Amino acid sequence: MSRRLPPYRDSLAGTLLAAREAVMSPIRPYLREAGVTEQQWRVLRVLADGGELDLSSLAEAALLHPPSVTRILKDLVDRRLIRRDSDQTDGRRSLVRLTDAGRALMDHTAAFTSRLVDRNRSAFGADRLANLQRELKELTSALRKAHTSD
Prior knowledge:
The chain is mainly alpha-helical. It has helices spanning 12-24, 28-34, 38-50, 55-62, 66-78, 100-124, 126-148; strands at residues 53-54, 82-86, 94-98. It has one domain (27-148): Winged helix-like DNA-binding domain superfamily/Winged helix DNA-binding domain (Arc Repressor Mutant, subunit A). The chain has a three-stranded antiparallel β-sheet. It is globular, with a radius of gyration of 18 Å.
């Protein structure tokens, strides 16, 4: 006997994807205008938040696969938005940080994204949004534990 799945939009994956689209769709035109992809913006945003990072930490924080980060970094270095240097203590490691141009881009986008964050908070409610984010973090942790114990 096969178990019937809910319609995709009512599934956990579908619901999460719809929420992601609702969050990201207002910013996409702005990112296009700034000349960056969503993935590039995530890398820049993580670097703006965390300062200088090694590639593994950057990939993990930006929720990207390391090979994708390598391709993204090449373009961002070519555009002089980030700088990639060898680690002074371990020459095999690369460290990445924003350049002044990268910081200027992030400062410019911060005003717009801050307004979006405020609008989202107002639309959904600050407490509800904080609770949702907390629950989603707990869901992520629980699912990772469940899938690593298989």
